[in-house]
Amino acid sequence: MLHDMESCTSLAFVLQPAGELLFRYLMLSMICNLDSSAAVSPPSNTISRDDINTWTFFTKKCQFDHSTFSVKRNHFIQWKVVMSRAIDFIMQQVNQEYAAHGIATEQTLMEVVSGFRRFHPLHGIQLIIKLKLKFKRFRAGTFTAPSTRTFVLDMPLTDVVLRELEQPAVERLHLILPLSGRFKTFKRFLSQFELICGQQNLNCELLLILYDSEEKAETEAAVKASPYSDKIRIVFEAGSFSRAKALHKGVSEVQDGTLMLFIDVDLYFNEDALLRVRQHTNKGRSIYFPIVFSQYDSQMVCGEDNCPVEDQSHLSGAFRFFGFGITSMYKEDYVKSGGFDMSITGWGKEDVDLFVKMIRANYEVFRSADPGFVHIYHPVICDKSLSAEQTTMCLNSKSASFASKKTLVDIFARTHWTVMTRSM
């Protein structure tokens, strides 16, 4: 449903491009005090403040979103597509409305001024959009003038489509783990691997890309002593540690058609997480990039070296939406995308580069918070030899993993009480 807010008129429409989003009439919008959503809305006395579906304000070039840390950001590509289709439809309907009344005129778009948008779970995409138009009238001489008009556009959901997601085949999953030193942390990871992939027999294999270090011999001995050593293979790598090169080496060691999970030694994982890896990774079609729950500094949260991984409250950690290092894919899809950039060394950036390559190779990226993957806290050390971009990424990650905002405020209040109370 399209409304012109100045004239309070309605333009009903049905537009159904093959395989595309279905635009069709569903409801009257808020203007003229009409709102068809009242018929399906719950009683007002059952709604809390968290149930309010807020709007996102946007301009021609950016959006202002309260739900992300980055308050001002560029438009997502999906929203650009939606906006383009919405504007095309508005212009088509506006000119058809004039033609239907025998008015010899034409309106063309000059620019998008601003607007609001939101996704409503019941009603689909809703837009309030202000457009600057060029008004051209042909009767009694050509007359041209700019005009600003505001429209409300409802883009309802499609009809319900049901399909069952088949249980994924339990094919062999290769966990590829780069490692240099950090024997104590590896012992913890090895125990988890033995529990999930060994005792529960989930058809996993660990491919350990091991760099030279003072703890190399201890690591080898721990693998040989494992009751599931037949599920672990070590590939030795020389030179300075590089996660990109290590993972690329791991890919070269497995056969075509292999399902791979790139993993870190600091990661806890459970059986459900590996099930979702198999479920959301499809050869030639989709790549899984889970959003990992990242623990805050354990000393700040529980006062111990390690906090329980089951504690996933807002005080104990946060889902690391800016991290892309944990991912699963098939070998052929890795090769097709171009794989890791081997020129990237040191901390970070190689995962973001691969993520972008997968998108540009037209793979469906399945991105979701996964509580079955937990990044166990460890101090972040930003090497002085990192590039400026990598240093910024490293410092941002370090600051984000320290503690929750509430914990930081509590610490500040205890140590700077006079500052906190000076305006009271």
Walk me through the topology:
Blueprint: E1 2-4, E2 9-11, E3 14-15, E4 23-24, E5 56-59, E6 62-64, E7 72-74, H1 77-100, E8 105-120, E9 124-137, E10 143-155, E11 173-179, H2 183-199, E12 204-211, H3 216-225, E13 232-237, H4 243-253, E14 259-262, E15 267-269, H5 271-280, E16 286-295, H6 298-301, E17 317-319, E18 327-330, H7 331-337, H8 350-360, E19 364-375, H9 388-400, H10 405-415, H11 417-421
Parallel strand pairs: 11-12, 11-14, 12-13, 16-19
Antiparallel strand pairs: 1-2, 1-10, 3-4, 5-6, 5-8, 6-7, 8-9, 9-10, 14-18, 15-19, 16-17
Helix pairs in contact: 2-3
Question: How do the strands of the widest beta sheet line up side by side?
Answer: 2-1-10-9-8-5-6-7
**Percent helix range:** 25-40%
Order of helices and strands: EEEEEEEHEEEEHEHEHEEHEHEEHHEHHH
Radius of gyration from CA coordinates: 27 Å
Mean pLDDT: 79
Question: What is the structure about, briefly put?
Answer:
With 424 residues, the protein is of the alpha+beta class.
What does this structure look like?
- The protein is of the alpha+beta class.
- The protein contains 11 helices and 19 strands.
- Strands 2-1-10-9-8-5-6-7 form an 8-stranded antiparallel sheet.
- The longest helix has 24 residues, at 77-100.
- The radius of gyration is 27 Å and the shape is elongated.
- The two termini are 51 Å apart.
